[in-house]
Amino acid sequence: MPGAGLCSCWGRRVLPLLLAYVCYLLLGATVFQLLERRAEAQSRDRFQIEKLRFLENYTCLDQWALEQFVQVIMEAWVKGVNPKGNSTNPSNWDFGSSFFFAGTVVTTIGYGNLAPSTEAGQIFCVFYALVGIPLNVVFLNHLGTGLRAHLATLKRWENKPRRSQILQLLGLALFLTLGTLVILIFPPMIFSHVEGWSFGEGFYFAFITLSTIGFGDYVVGTDPSKHYIAIYRSLAAIWILLGLSWLALILSLGPLLLHRCSQLWLISRGLNFKEGGAPGTDGLPRPQKIPISA
């Protein structure tokens, strides 16, 4: 019966995956609680102590006035205004910053440190995201397809001598390595230098950004004490688009590259493939063709 088949499919596939998913969430919740709860409590206690010291030093203020001032600071922060510095701080809505914000909307990163505060801006953001998010997905898919098209010679690896296969494999590995350095290693170094972060913080920002998690604890171009070039945040937005495209290419070519490495290793060992490939001109088994989209 269809109902019995559906229950069987649920029991064999969905239920184990659901249990693994829930267990993974429970594991993450436990580890984050152990690592972060004490630091949060220390920060909260330190903040309360600083408020008490402030009231002791400025006796003309009372608790209510201080809480009102803190509320004003929080509202300014929510609207993207950095409370540090003065009114000469650069605008969060100049063209470069607006371009950066538009990029975080269509890529669904959403740092959370900046958002439209006007009703018209919020309505426009909704419709802009409704069109921009699918457009971004289509663009990244086509860009990844275009990059893979330049590597279409991988389809003809099986028809070449083993030495040529090894050379092409090394060239592809070098290409992916250099691209990873340009996209994932050098930008964190630049961000660390410009923002005054450590390399670990810069790499953390890069990973959180390109994975579209976007916590908002680290965001480029927001320190009022620094003087950024006008196109700094626009360049960061372009890097985000290129980084997402590169990750899409890595995820598609990574399994193929690993598969070809294993095949060449088996050939070098003189073993027969279980697929039953036909022997090549050198007397060694020839693997079956694998499409580039595998």
From TrEMBL:
One of its GO terms (biological process) is regulation of release of sequestered calcium ion into cytosol. It catalyses: K(+)(in) = K(+)(out); Rb(+)(in) = Rb(+)(out); Cs(+)(in) = Cs(+)(out). Glycans are attached at N86. InterPro entries: 2pore_dom_K_chnl, 2pore_dom_K_chnl_TASK, K_chnl_dom. It is a multi-pass membrane protein. This is 2P domain potassium channel Talk-1. It is found in: Cell membrane; Endoplasmic reticulum membrane; Mitochondrion inner membrane. The lineage of its organism: Eukaryota, Metazoa, Chordata, Craniata, Vertebrata. It comes from Trichechus manatus latirostris (Florida manatee). GO terms for cellular component: endoplasmic reticulum membrane; mitochondrial inner membrane; plasma membrane. GO terms for molecular function: metal ion binding; outward rectifier potassium channel activity; potassium ion leak channel activity. It holds the Pfam family Ion_trans_2. Keywords: Cell membrane, Disulfide bond, Endoplasmic reticulum, Ion channel, Ion transport, Membrane, Metal-binding, Mitochondrion, Mitochondrion inner membrane, Potassium, Potassium channel, Potassium transport, Transmembrane, Transmembrane helix, Transport. It comes from the Eukaryota. The chain crosses the membrane at residues 14-35, 93-114, 120-145, 166-190, 202-220, 232-258. Belongs to the two pore domain potassium channel (TC 1.A.1.8) family. The keyword S-adenosyl-L-methionine does not apply. Homodimer; disulfide-linked. Heterodimer with KCNK17 and KCNK5. Residues 87-145, 181-252 form the Potassium channel domain. Its main location: membrane.
